[in-house]
Write a structure and sequence with these properties.
Number of helices: 8
Number of strands: 8
Strand content: 15-25%
Largest sheet: 8 strands, parallel, barrel
Helix content: 25-40%
Shape: globular
Low-confidence stretches: 1-5
Mean pLDDT: 92
Radius of gyration: 16 Å
């Protein structure tokens, strides 16, 4: 089985979507074929049975491509499907308990929206990475409005300097410059990968820009 925690988390973190005409496992297969190395299965409308079925197929695919696969929200699904880790919101499951259950060989991520939540994340000292946002309003989470400015994001990422941080919310392929500007590990992309119901229309562009950015900082 492809293992657990990559030495350096990629700067492009892609999430699957319920809102495209393509199953989550098929989305993951396409992402893997295009070279994406960090993927989250984010399904909000599947039944538990369907989610488990998709997760197990997704794990097979990601293992084949040596891609790190994270399951959103469901600790049970992540554990049973043997994904590389889980991403938990503050209402999903205790992150501290999740670590006890999953052990140290799995990735655990969480989302934070404020300096107070960043303080709590640092105090717990459990998560392997965090997502911070929303940076802009996004179709993925239309009920959330941006409340933080660039200075706030920079303050949070610097405060969590030992934890890789990913910016989330309304980002596009011309936003990779924010990684350096805001001291980030990378950016999270979901709805911007696609055009309406057609999945992955812009995926090639994101992969290319991620490679270009990595090449530029390694010169």
């Amino acid at each position: 089985m492809y293992s657990k925690i990559p030495n350096d988390l990629p700067n492009l973190y892609c999430l699957t979507s319920d809102n495209v005409a393509c199953s989550h496992s098929n989305q993951i297969e396409i992402m893997c074929m295009k070279g994406v190395k960090l993927i989250q299965l984010r399904a909000k409308s599947l039944t538990n049975h369907s989610l488990m079925k998709e997760a197990k197929r997704a794990v097979e695919i990601s293992n084949h491509f040596e891609t790190t696969l994270i399951i959103n929200d469901s600790l049970e699904c992540s554990a049973r499907a043997e994904s590389n880790g889980v991403h938990l919101g503050k209402r999903d499951f205790s992150i501290t308990l999740a670590r006890r259950i999953l052990g140290d060989e799995k990735l655990i991520g969480e989302t934070i929206h404020s300096m107070e939540e960043a303080w709590l994340a640092k105090k717990r000292n459990v998560s392997d990475y965090v997502g911070i946002g929303p940076f802009r309003r996004s179709p993925t989470k239309s009920s959330l409005f941006p409340e933080l400015g660039p200075k706030d994001f920079l303050m949070i990422s610097e405060y969590l300097s030992s934890v890789p941080t990913y910016l989330i919310g309304g980002l596009n392929y011309d936003d990779f410059y924010l990684i350096k500007k805001l001291n980030l590990a990378g950016i999270c992309i979901c709805s911007s990968l696609s055009e309406g119901r057609e999945f992955g229309v812009h995926l090639n562009k994101f992969v290319l820009e991620a490679k270009k950015y990595l090449s530029k900082i390694n010169r």
